[in-house]
Write a structure and sequence with these properties.
Length: 149
């Protein structure tokens, strides 16, 4: 009689820096939007990323971006997970450029919306880059900080 023993070992790490890479950006950004009571938005995911940001697919592991469905509203919240530590600066630069372009377009369009864009936040934690253009950017930033281990 033969005895076969199988041992299953998890391939994931308990290291906080790698655990962050295993989380879903869409779930995080939608949870933040819900806590801020932001409604009427569309979710843009990685396949449409290049329509909004100048980034290479290889620089991004995960991407979720909420855009207001209300015409003329500048609100947007997004989380972009860099594919590596080396890609974080490229992601931050792309988000900064996106916000700058948005700021330019709203400067003459709407003073209220321009103020939202000019007070937006861009944060990075453990490979995630977060940005928020909304009425409560500081609160959005705190919620992001809490959502990333």
């Amino acid at each position: 009689m033969s005895l076969i023993c199988l041992l299953f070992v998890s391939c994931s790490s308990n290291d906080a820096s790698t655990a962050a890479y295993e989380q879903d950006a869409a779930a995080k950004v939608e949870a933040i939007a819900a806590k801020l009571e932001i409604k009427d938005y569309s979710v843009i995911k990685k396949p449409q990323m290049s329509l909004h940001f100048v980034l290479k697919d290889s620089e991004v592991a995960d991407f979720a971006y909420l855009v207001s469905d209300t015409e003329g509203n500048a609100d947007e919240i997004g989380i972009i997970q860099a594919s590596s530590k080396e890609s974080v600066s490229s992601v931050k630069d792309a988000v900064g450029e996106h916000i700058s372009l948005k700021e330019s377009s709203y400067r003459s369009y709407s003073n209220t919306e321009y103020t939202k864009v000019s007070t937006s936040v861009i944060l990075e934690k453990n490979g995630y880059v977060f940005f928020a253009v909304c009425d409560q950017p500081d609160q959005a930033g705190k919620l992001f900080e809490q959502s990333i281990p």
